[in-house]
Every structure is written in C-alpha cells, then in structure tokens.
Write a structure and sequence with these properties.
Residues 190-329 form the Phosphatidic acid phosphatase type 2/haloperoxidase domain. InterPro entries: Autotrns_rpt (IPR013425), PAP2/HPO (IPR000326), PAP2/HPO_sf (IPR036938), Pectin_lyase_fold/virulence (IPR011050), TAT_signal (IPR006311). It holds the Pfam family PATR. Residues 153-186 are annotated as: Disordered. The chain is built from 18 helices and 26 strands. It has 637 residues and is of the alpha/beta class. The longest helix has 20 residues, at 311-330.
C-alpha cells in the first residue's frame, strides 16, 4: 500500500531478519514484508520493476521475506490488502473486515458441521506424504503407477480419536526393497516421473518464507475478527486455548505445532504441496490432467475441514504452487527431465495397461468407480474453491498471462504453440476483482481445470493442426468450453478435434483437413461454415447459424433419426460443390425403408453432393436435392 500523505517511511531489520516498516510516529511499527517500500518504488529494484516470477523463483528462501527479495512473497501481495502484519505473530490487524470475517465464519461453520468420516479423511491427508496422496488422482492408472514407481506410505487410515503422539509418514517395515515415500523411487521403472515430482517440489518451493513474512495465524488461534485472544487456559493436551469457534479435528489435536511464532497459516503448505505434485503428475500423465487438478482442490479443502487452515490460506497455497510449478517446468535446467518423465510415463503405462498412445486416455477414464469420473461434478467441486469467500468488487482488468505459465499445458495441449496455450490460459482465466487473485502477475486468476478443455474465446482467428500419426492428444482431442469471441476456427492436419460447447464465436469455421466433430447443436458458433477438405461430422442434430459451403474432396457425416427433423439446419444459404454426404442410421431410432428423411434444411440451396453413402447392409439412400434442402429416400438393396 502507498504510504499515507505526510508520513515518513523508515525501515529496520529485527533479530529474526524480518524487514520492518515504520510510517511515522503515529503509525508505529508494522510488519513488513515491506509492501509500502515495494509498491512505492523506493529502491532501484522496485523502480526498474521486479523480475518475472519464473526468472526469480529461486529467491524463495527463508533469508528473503520481503516482496523486493522473494518472488513468492511478491506474487502473494494481495494478502497485504486484507491483513497488516504485526511486529509479532499475534499482533497483526485486519485491513479488510468483510473478507477476513467471512473467512473465519466459513471455517467455523465447516469445522462445526464436520462428520467423523471427514475428520478422519482430514487426518489422513494431513499426515500422509502429499505426493503419495496425489497418486489417487490417476484413477485406473494409480495402481500401475504405485507398482511401477515403488511408491508406498505408512499412513493408510485414521484413529477413532486423538492419537497419543505425533505421527509421520515413514517407510513401512514390510515395504518391498527399493520402495520410497511420496511419488516413489528414482531408481524405479517410473523413476524419472518421481524425480520430476520431487524437483517441482524442490528447495525453492517451501511456503515457510511467506508464512514468516505474513504471520497470519492458524484459524484455530483466531476469533471471528481474525484477532488472537489467548484465554490463558490450557486444554487437556497442554495446548493454549484461544477464543476461536474453529474446531480442530480430534485426530489432529496432537499434530498441531506448539510454536505459534513459526506456525503461520498463510499460505497453506499442504495446499502448496498438493498442487505442486498434481501439476508435476499432470505434466507426465496429461491423460488425467483435470482429475489431478480436481484432486488437488479436494485435498486442499480438507485443510479447512481439519480446522488447520482457512480459505485464504488455501487460496494462497494454490497461487504459489501454480507459479512454482510453472517456474520449475520452464526452467531450462529441467528440460531434459520433464521430457524424459513424460516419455517414461507414456511408455510404462501403455505397456502395463495393454494400451497405445491413442487408447490410454480411454483406459484412464474407464473405471465407473473412479471418484473423478464425472467431469461435471469435478467442475462443480473446483469452481467455488477458486475464490471461496472472496467477493468480486467490479474491476474489469484484462488478464495478462504470466511469463512461462503456458508450460503448464505443454503436454495437455501439445499440438498448440506456446502462444496459443497462452491464449487458452487468458481466455479461460478468472475475471479480475478478487483480492488475493489480483496480486503481482495475477497467477491466481489462472483456471487450469477449464484451460484443459481448450479455448474460452477466439478473440482472433485460430488455426489448429492435429497429426494422427503422432498419437495421443496430437491425434485426437476435445474442447469442451463454451467458446465466445469475434475470431474463427480453421481445422488442419490429419487428426480429429471435437467441439462440445454451446459456442458463440462469430468468425466462422473452416475444415481443411482431418476431422472436426460437432458434438453439440451449437458447436460451430454463429458464423459461416466451409468444408474445403477433410470431414465435418455431427454426432447430434447440428445448426449452422451462417451459410454452409462444401467443396470437392470433402465429407459431411450426419446421423439419420426416424420421426425427426433435419440432421443439419442452416440459417443462410447452402452451396454444394460436390463432396460426399455420409449418413449413419441412429441406433436407437433408425428410420425404416420406404420413408423419406430430411437431411439438410436451408432458405436456399445450390449445387449437389457428388455421392451419398449410407452405413447399412440392407438399405440405400437416394438423394433428393431441392431449392431449400436435401432429403434421402430409403429403399431396400
């Protein structure tokens, strides 16, 4: 915050190395981090502008606890708009009462209504190694991964009550030779993947420097107004009793830190670890990208359920993890490792599951019992937890994607260029106006769950090329977002792209090669559609809001349904310069021989298809071209 008018600013370093800032005698000492100094550009570094996070992430060490010196503290600067750090851990003060009161009320309600099962779950993910916990996001691939990585844990359940002492995840006595905690052994069949996870969670990824800098206490130490009130009493376990309505899970009472000065709540270290591991796994196994992201949000939420962290703590942990994962993955020093980890994961998992690069995705989503099998449920779980209690206060600032963030989608959208992946992140990002998310470089506005489903808008024309020979997402992918914008889409290459959203982009659609699948009636937006090569396939009834043009050496695939209207409705004129019309009979409601079925309807039609095909051994389709559409008469062969 800029210093108030008429106040002078001075700084000093206390015995723990914290930078303190004084705003004149009337203000007294307030804790740094020295946001006043930084935002006021009082030194040469601030004046020249701070370095991009991905270039400066190695500054995140305990010796650096100011935004000028620590990149993590800098990107978490939004916290300084709601909380002013004090000169000791329990002397901070509230700057935004609306946010922090809502924060504490949410924590109190959640912990007071917590079930015994939720308390045990919170204990499990508090004590289990966070990287191991994230393996569960691999779904049907989790078992093969644990076996291949030799990943083990000693924390597999929770006690009914409070355990007698502290519990840590250790190597089980009966673990197979060569086993390791967390993501697994570096000497295993999946050693490069385990190494990637450990590298992303490396020495510059700790939340402790930021905890020391902000000194925002744990929720169980604060009352509704985020004030620390020590009642002077001790509980049966010998811990101080604070005036707080937040109820810590019984299983975790002895797991709490006894040193409040070094036990800050913001940002949540477990949340940071969960998201770091999730994004490292997602890079190596992008077939489970969204599910891993969902699990990171789910496990992070247990920190609030446990009573160990508040919503702002968890949001801060996610923000720092997003930036740190991007920095580690973008670091040239890790280039060989990340490539090797992706290749090793693909090779091992396809071999272990009897799949190929083209079929691994289907296998990875084949288990109906998978808790993350429902993409809609995943989206509903993630969405509210992006912001929790934060109100949106009306700002409409465009998002500039932070430098290097595009690497997070490098294996999930490998057929896009780096600049295109940045556009995906920009057009799927959260709106501005959320305090904490609007900090330096705005890492908190990135929505990786939504970005995994492709563009949110075509603000300029987009050309996408998929290569069937390259396999995996290079060969076939789907964009499930509702796409807006003035731009259009050109589909090239031999691969297949599927659009499933209710799209309203206005720049039109061109199919030049390969296959474009329209999986919803509004998939092709509001513009004209041209099929100059390749195949346009509609899995459902399709509407083209503009004109429709089909040229030679191209193919239109539609489904015929009995007692139904046209499979394709065009709002403007249709021009057919040859090409193939390929028809499939609907399995549930197929039309019968002797009927005439409408296929294409438009205000005006000129030209005709070169050939009409029908995938039936007993029927053939005789086309009927008119001035306003195409029908087929079904006759027996």
């Amino acid at each position: 915050m800029p210093s108030s008018a008429g106040h002078t600013t001075a700084t000093a370093v206390d015995r723990r190395g914290f930078l303190r800032t004084s705003l004149g005698a009337s203000a007294g000492l307030v804790a740094a981090p020295a946001f006043v100094t930084w935002l006021g550009a009082a030194d040469a570094k601030a004046a020249s502008g701070p370095a991009a996070f991905v270039d400066d992430y190695r500054s995140n060490v305990v010796a650096n606890q100011t935004p000028e010196t620590n990149a993590v503290v800098r990107i978490l600067g939004g916290m300084a708009e709601v909380w002013k750090t004090g000169d000791a851990w329990d002397t901070g003060s509230v700057l935004d009462r609306e946010v922090l009161r809502a924060n504490m009320r949410y924590c109190a309600r959640l912990t007071q209504s917590r079930t015994e099962a939720q308390a045990k779950e919170a204990f499990l993910y508090d004590r289990q190694h966070q990287s191991y916990a994230m393996i569960g996001g691999l779904g049907p691939l989790a078992g093969p991964y644990r076996e291949g990585a030799k990943a083990v844990t000693s924390v597999t359940g929770a006690p009914d009550g409070t355990p007698p002492g502290k519990i840590s995840d250790t190597l089980p006595a009966d673990a197979p030779a060569g086993s390791a905690l967390g993501a697994g052994s570096h000497d295993s069949d999946l050693g490069r993947v385990a190494e990637l996870v450990d590298t992303v969670r490396g020495p510059f990824a700790s939340g402790n420097p930021a905890k020391f800098a902000f000194q925002y206490p744990r929720p169980w130490r604060m009352n509704e107004d985020s004030e620390v009130v020590d009642t002077g009493r001790r509980d049966a376990l010998g811990y101080p009793v604070y005036d707080s309505e937040v109820v810590v899970a019984p299983q975790l009472l002895r797991q709490r830190s006894e040193n409040a000065q070094e036990d800050g709540g913001f940002p949540s270290g477990h949340t940071n670890a969960f998201h770091l591991a999730a994004l490292a796994f997602a890079y190596a196994v992008p077939e489970r990208f969204q599910e891993l992201v969902t699990r990171a949000f789910e496990l992070s939420h247990t920190r609030i359920t446990a009573g160990m962290h508040s919503t702002v703590d968890v949001i801060g942990g996610r923000i720092m993890a997003t930036a740190l994962a991007a920095a580690a993955l973008a670091d040239p020093a890790n280039a060989e490792l990340k490539t090797a980890a992706r290749a090793q994961a693909l090779s091992y998992l396809t071999r272990r599951t009897g799949t190929t690069a083209d079929t691994l995705y289907a296998y990875a989503h084949s288990d109906a019992a998978d808790p993350y099998a429902d993409r809609g449920a995943n989206a509903r779980a993630v969405g509210p937890r992006m912001t929790y209690v934060l109100p949106r206060r009306g700002r409409k600032d465009p998002l500039t994607v932070p430098k290097g963030a595009e690497v997070l989608l490098e294996t999930r959208l490998p057929y896009l260029s780096a600049e295109q992946r940045r556009e995906v992140l920009r057009t799927t990002g959260l709106p501005s106006g959320y305090v904490l998310l609007d900090g330096f470089e705005q890492w908190g506005r990135l929505d990786l769950f939504t970005a995994a489903d492709g563009y949110g808008a075509f603000d300029r024309d987009v050309t996408v090329t998929l290569d069937a020979a390259a396999g995996g997402f290079h060969a076939a992918d789907g964009w499930r977002n509702d796409i807006e914008g003035d731009g259009g889409l050109a589909k090239r290459g031999t691969g297949t792209l599927t659009l499933t959203g209710r799209n309203r982009y206005r720049g039109g659609t061109v199919v030049e090669a390969g296959t474009l699948v329209a999986a919803s009636p509004e998939a092709l937006g509001l513009g004209d559609v041209r099929v100059t090569g390749g195949t346009l396939r509609a899995d459902r009834v399709l509407r083209v809001r503009g004109s429709y043009v089909q040229e030679r050496a191209s193919r239109l695939e539609l489904t015929l349904r009995g007692d139904h209207g046209p499979a394709l409705t065009v709002s403007r004129r249709v021009l057919l310069d040859g090409g193939v019309l390929a028809l499939r009979l609907d399995a549930g409601r197929p039309p019968v021989a002797g009927t005439t079925v409408p296929v294409l309807s438009a205000p005006g039609l000129r030209g005709r298809f070169d050939r009409v095909e029908l995938d039936s051994d007993t029927l053939r389709a005789v086309p009927v071209h008119t001035a306003d559409g195409v029908s087929v008469r079904l006759v027996r062969r």
